[in-house]
Amino acid sequence: SSYYTQQNEVTSTDNLDFRHHSYKDMRQLMKVVNEECPTITRIYNIGKSSRGLKIYAMEVSDNPGEHETGEPEFRYTAGLHGNEALGRELLLLLMQFLCKEYQDGNPRVRGLVTDTRIHLVPSLNPDGYELAHEAGSELGNWALGHWTEEGFDLFENFPDLASALWAAEERRLVPHQFPNHHIPIPE
Hints:
Layout: H1 2-8, H2 23-36, E1 41-48, E2 54-60, E3 73-77, H3 86-103, H4 107-115, E4 117-121, H5 126-139, H6 161-170
Parallel strand pairs: 3-4
Antiparallel strand pairs: 1-2, 2-4
Helix pairs in contact: 2-3
């Protein structure tokens, strides 16, 4: 049986870190990526969880920390449900991939990093992840770590900023009483 195990084993040749990361491991991986690609990455804190864990984000850009007028920005957020680990791991892999491919001169990745400001938040509910991880899948139930400590489902309670803007536009309050902070399109 060891012959078949070895023959079917998939081994990565790109040195990406394929494993589940605890909160501490996640922070360490983000630090390593930042140290490997300091000119295109920046780690920042967007707040704290109920238990006081910092919620980290990584910016990937040719000018990290600088807002460039006209440059599109987007944020990938994962880990809203702490017990759903896949999104967290995919964003950690994306951080590593963008760094490595940028260094290797991949033209698509270089264009993406140069022309876009990317924000990656791998764990919006780190408390839930730690809770589910400690209990393990065999001992926990499907809901363990799903909600925040206060009982919020972050997916259902995510801020809806578009509705307020649409309502203000219907009442003709935009842009004087309700600015939309968008760059106006020239006539």
